Each structure stands twice: as C-alpha cells, then as structure tokens.
# Entry
Amino acid sequence: MPKDTATRALREFALLKALAATETLPEVEALFAEVTGLRPRRRARLFAESLRRRRHGVEDLLRTVQGHRKEDADVITHAISGRVGAGEFDLMLATYEEWNKVEDETAPAVQMKATALAGAISRCMNKSLLLRLRGTVTRMQLAGADSSRPIILSLLKFGNKRDVQLVLDRIANERFPIYFRNHTELGRTLMKRMAEVESSVPMFVSTIVGKREFWEYFPAEERAKAQPGDLLSIKDVSNRSLYYSHACLTAVSRKWKNAPPRSARSFM
# Structure
C-alpha cells in the first residue's frame, strides 16, 4: 500500500472514530465534512452518514435502512451502539418484530435487515432493558429467522432462570426446525450467566433431566410409542440438540462456575 494511501486510511479511521464518539452537532458536522473531503469509499461514507444521522435519533436511521439495499443494513445499523433511551429501544424492538414476522429464506432482503437490526439491539442491551427484550422473545418467530439468534444471546447474557425457561419453552413449542449457528457461544453465555445469578439447579431443569429422553435417544418410531412422561416436550425433534444443550448446560453451570468456559464444548 502506498504511503499516502495508508496515511489517508488511518486518517479516515481516526475521523470515523471521533465522529462516533462526539456529542455536539457542530463537531459532528465538522468531522463529517472532513471525512467526505477525503473521498472515502462508499461503505465508509455510508457509515459516516449513518453516524451523522444517528444524532437525529434511531427512527431516522431505521428509515434509512428500509430505503437502502440489503447489503447496506449492517453498515447503517453499526451506527447504533452503546446506551440508548427506553423509547428508542422500544422503537428498535417494534421495528425488529415487524421485520421478523416476514423474514425467511425466501426474503433475503428482510432477513439481512432484521439480522442487522438484531445486532444493534444486542449492542445496546443492558440489564435495565431486560423486561422489554423478554417481551420480544415471547412474540418473535424462531424457525427460519436467522435474526432471532442475537436476540436470544442477549437475553441469556443479561437474564436469569426465568429467561432460560422462556428460551427452552420457545424451542420446545416450535413446530419447525430452528437453525442457530454456533451453539457453543450460546451455551457458554448461558453457563456464565447462570453461574453468576443462580445458587442451585432450577426446578424446571431438574424436571427435564428426569425425563428418559434426556438420557436416551428415541428414534421417531419409538418416540411415537413412548409414554408422554418419558419424553422431552419438543414438538419438532430436529430441535432436540438445541433444547438438550441449553438444559444440560444450565444444570451443570453451578458445578463449572470456576472452570474454563470451553469445557462446555463436550456437551454441544
């Protein structure tokens, strides 16, 4: 890379970082003008424009996402991070739920935008917003919705045993396959949080562990003949591994409170 190109790239990065951190509108406008004066590439300019728009509120940015192509969604929503007000968080959740309702593999534009917004929600999440996020997890679709994973991850990161039970119930009641990449990250997050906030294995997890199907594999034909009390309460057996891993890691989180998180991998 030529020296002047490298210098320009470093200056561009420094200006974008300053633009993300500054609060006053005059400083925002001055930094934005300096960034655009460097003639940055399209994605860098779009990010600078998004950081500038962010000062006018989340609603303006969400309208921008809707008006751009799907590949731009992640760039635009990365302007949303850190602490947001309850009203803005509610707006983000309401917009996410609207997009999540119509998201599936046949609508890649909606799916990419919903996933990008879910990432922004995750970056802004804190414990004070838990009740709001819990409501969204109760209502959103899981099957066919890639965007639901970062929402579930945020709930497990800040939640308690009630939230683990909510996630297990949602997985169990889903009638179609749920495809979450990287079960290990979900499991490690769950274990860490449960070790922090719970002093014993929750009763609902003890009930799950007491089922025969928790310890034995039931092929479909045997499952149809088994006693209901022996079976895990999952409607789609393809979701068994996801359900099992979450229940299992909750059960052992107290035992492994001080163990390396990667110990969880043998259960995933």
About this structure: The first helix runs from residue 3 to 21. The two ends are 43 Å apart (CA to CA). The mean pLDDT is 88. The CA atoms of residues 175 and 235 lie 5 Å apart.
